[in-house]
Amino acid sequence: MAHGHSWAIRRPSGAIGRAFLAGGIARVLSLVLQVGSIAITTRTLGVDAFGLLALLLGSLSLFSFLDLGIGNASLSRLSAELKRHDLAAARETLGSAVVALVIAATLMGAMLSSVVILAPARWLPAATGVSVGTVRVALIVYVLSIALTIVTSTGSRLSLALEHGTLNAWYAAIAAVATSVLCLLGALVHGGLVYFSVACVAVSPLSQAAQTLWLARQHPDLFAGWVVNFRQILGFLKAGLPFMVLALGAVATYQTDSLIIQYSLGSGALAGFGVTMRLFGIVTSLYAAGLQQVWATLAGAFALGDFERSRRIVRGVIVGILTTGVPLTALLVLVGRPVIGTWAGPDYRPSIALLAVVGTWSIYNLVMSVLSFALNAANLVWRQAFWAILMASISLPLSLILVNIVGSPGPVLATLVSHLLVIAIPSIISVRKLLGGRR
Q1: Cα(183)–Cα(309) distance, integer angstroms
Q2: 161 vs 61, which has greater pLDDT?
Q3: How many of the other CB atoms lie within 10 Å of CB of 428?
Q4: Taking the model in full, what pTM does it have?
Q5: What CA–CA distance (Å, rounded) separates 234 from 228?
Q6: Would you kindly state where each structural domain of the chain is located, as residue ranges?
């Protein structure tokens, strides 16, 4: 690729289609590997220890807000600058964003690692046969992986801004291969919680780091001669603030489900819940790469005032999700119990109620994500942040009530109900106005 054109972006419609296709293919590959990984991990660790691992895996985004919203703010800005072919501005944005993310990740990693080391044992999650020291080390692996992800996610966001979202799918598949190999080796050497924490949690940010380095080689004109603008870093903090508040609301609503089940029902119930969420994660992850590309592509379209193309993209993606995702999800609800019983073992078999609630939420959340990404692309984030905090204030107490009434489906049911009450209608109204050329 010629140096002078290495940063040229692709046609938006083609980029989204390729991202969905590559994401689907890569996810099927990852799924085949994941089935084996989870079967190996559940049988090697046992129910209680796997429950703790499920807690970590289910909470990977719990502290994502600690990037201060800089990553998401930089995605919209980079996409708009590259769409306008403003290489100098894009280079400055990328350099300033990386410096800001390194600072945020360093502070976050040091702070949370100190908390894990100094926290009393009674504050830590526990499982039969797992020592407090082992739990601390597993939590430190988790914290450092999040800190690394804050920085290395630069590569995945840059790929989206360049309309190369397919790269995210393929590097995720590489991470899945590496995780599967490590899990197999773990079974052979009887690895414990710390080993499987590294295999299942730490591999993904390392894969993202490799992706960032590859992009630096392919697009040297975006990485060479960075000018770090500290005024722009302050601007990122301002632009990232609503994303951080939105992430806090999402954490309080979505990422606390595992914690609520762990402390209300125990590690055994959490293990079954974790496997069920990963099963339906198969469906949602088929669309992940394409949905991420929708955000970046819409940001470029809005920068050019191309609302007709934006309307086609939003309508097409929603119709595609409904026509393909609903049948897949319905099938998983029907066959979920025997599949999970065979896959992970009889101790992990979920109730029909949990399967139905998680399946319904999975499809609903995919559709609403399209609307949310459209608003993100137009920098209409503060309103979403307000809705998210309001939703969390309803969802959290409702989760605590429902988990004691209906068991493990309770937190997911609370999330679905509160989202319908608080976010659904305002989001639909806002996106309709946006796509009509109004704010």
Answers
A1: 44
A2: 161
A3: 12
A4: 0.70
A5: 11
A6: 9-435
